[in-house]
Amino acid sequence: MDFKDTPEEAKFRAEIREWLRKNAPKGKRPGGAWTGSLIGEDSLKFHKDWQKKLYEGGWAAVAWPKEYGGRGASLMEQVIFYEEMARACAPSVVNVIGIALVGPVLIGHGTEEQKQRFLKPILSGDMIWSQGFSEPNAGSDLASLSTRAVLEGDHFVVNGQKVWTSFGTIADWILLLVRTDPSAPKHRGISCLLVDLHSPGVTIRPLVQMTGDAEFSEVFFDNVRVPQQNLVGALNDGWSIAIATLMHERGGVAVAIQVQIEQVLSSLFDLARRTGKNGRSAMEDPRIRQELARCYAEVQIARWNGYRSLTKIVKDGMPGPEGSFGKVFWTELNQRMQELALNLSGVFGLVPSGDPLTVDSGRWVYGYLRSRGNTIEGGTSEIQRNIVAERVLGLPKG
What we know:
The chain is of the alpha+beta class. Helix content is 47%, strand content 15%. The chain is built from ten helices and ten strands. A four-stranded mixed β-sheet has the order 1-4-5-8. A four-stranded antiparallel β-sheet has the order 2-3-7-6, with no helix packed on it. α6 runs antiparallel to α7, α6 (238-274) runs parallel beside α8 and α7 runs antiparallel to α8 (322-345). It starts with 6 loop residues before the first helix and ends in a 6-residue tail after the last helix.
């Protein structure tokens, strides 16, 4: 991979850098954390307003085709966009799942009617999306899902339950995998539906995490009627839609995560400069400097491994198992950085937001608690290590 920008890429970088200089939010954000929860009312409004500004500037989804509101950006231009977002410490969009997963799936597999109806409000943030894949007995083995949809006339009738649904409490719609042919092999009897979460028969129960947020939810469907025109792709071909969705998740979301860990690193260095230790800045303490140097080096490793994955996609058009290594690495790195921040903050680092004694509005205790879930969500570290062992190292299955 050539790490130097081409003339076209340099022009693209200068354009987004200048736009962010003029438009990225300045000053304190709701709760004081730039990458914290979206669930709170103030934080939700803040991120919606930011996505609206990105949309109006034509930056909400640079990778989408121009005819659907994007910029038709190349893969490397997407990387440049996220690098400049990290450099500007810009906040994330509110409609992460809609832009990174649902929109690309509809562009590739949706009907023209679905594209016209959903793509614009996804970009503007007026329609928030969630993803209904996991179930209590279908997590790692997603194809074992049991939520059923029966076609009655021109509607599907949906019954079942989803769990660990991100943004379920704030979402308007859900990309839902359902079983439409129970007699078929489990991978072949699945369909994909677009379901309005305000429909009668939908019940959403927040799952409160140890952070105090309800970022995830259980979603129950009791005879929920879904118009047949909300079917994505062909009937009983939902597994191919699921694979396409997960590919987008491993690609676009992974790049966005790199932005987050670089912002955490920057804030960690700033915290060390402001924190006193033995009568001087913690940055001058040899042991702290060594730990910070390790964090810096590992963030760069995460970046270069991300570039390696991108090279695979550029060459083959498909993500490879390298993404599993990256997922294990960044999740455990984030946990180490959050723990170091708490050690630097001392006892007041454990004080949550809202208390006058809190450090940085409680962002570090929040980040530490939230990082515990990183090694579970999106495929556990154990599963990712199995993928690396079997598909990269060629080891036998255990």
